[in-house]
Amino acid sequence: MDKFMRIKESKKLWIGGGILLLILGICIVIFNNTKAPTLTLKVPNEKISVTNKDEIIIPAVLSSLPDNEYPAASVSIKFNNNKLEFVGINIGTMETYNDYDPERDGVPSYKIPQWTFNKDVANKDGVIKAMYLDTTAGKNAYVKSGFEVDKKDIPFQLVFKLKDSVIPSDKLIIEIEEAVFATVNGDSDKTTLSTKDNYGKLNVKDGVIKITS
After folding, report:
1. What was the pLDDT predicted at 32?
2. pLDDT at residue 2, rounded to an integer
3. pTM of model > 0.70
4. What is the phi/psi pair of residue 114, to 5°?
5. What is the pLDDT at residue 129?
6. 3-state SS string over the chain?
7. According to the lineage, what is the superkingdom (predicted)?
8. I need a surface site. Which of 46, 122, 171, 184 has the fewest CB within 10 A?
């Protein structure tokens, strides 16, 4: 009888331990996702009238930037090209080095870069493929010292116009399909921020343009 009770208690301990490990694992995943940088499309909170002919500007806001150099960045963003016209990409507020050479310059200077894109292809396919590339591999890279929450946290801004085909109650989703902020050694040390697996985690939040009469 005592042996049976000991076995029963041992099973309870194993089950309890397994549950605790499972809960701990879930908490670790949630914590890692929470602390990971997030790229958010900040669409207007208010609904937009179908008669609106003005440009709709949507900042892409980054929540944080780990301490590293990011000489390349890219995004793939899907939109409804039957309802929206992609006008282009405006500069943001995040800064890169401005041709900074630590052996030559004492204190770095900074600049706000322009991302490259093809407007015609984007409107044809309904997918914006944009990128920033520092061909010096570091002298013009995104860096933590060029980032500050609420002040220097926008890498780029999307610009759209409504097409005549929009109707009241339309909800036009702007979806980040892929986003990358690449470091020089990101493939080996996994410091690149990416929505892809096997890299540093980068979360994304899509936006929805709501249409009214």
Report:
1. 42
2. 56
3. yes
4. -105, 130
5. 99
6. CHHHHHHHHHHHHHHHHHHHHHHHHHHHHHHHHHHCCEEEECCCCCCEECCCCCCEEEEEEECCCCCCEECEEEEEEECCCCCEEEEEEEECCCCEECCCCCCCCCCCCEECCCCECCHHHHHHHCEEEEEEECCCCCCCCEEHHHCECCCECCCEEEEEEECCCCCCCCEEEEEEEEEEEECCCHHHHCCCEECCCCCEECEEECEEEEEEC
7. Bacteria
8. 46
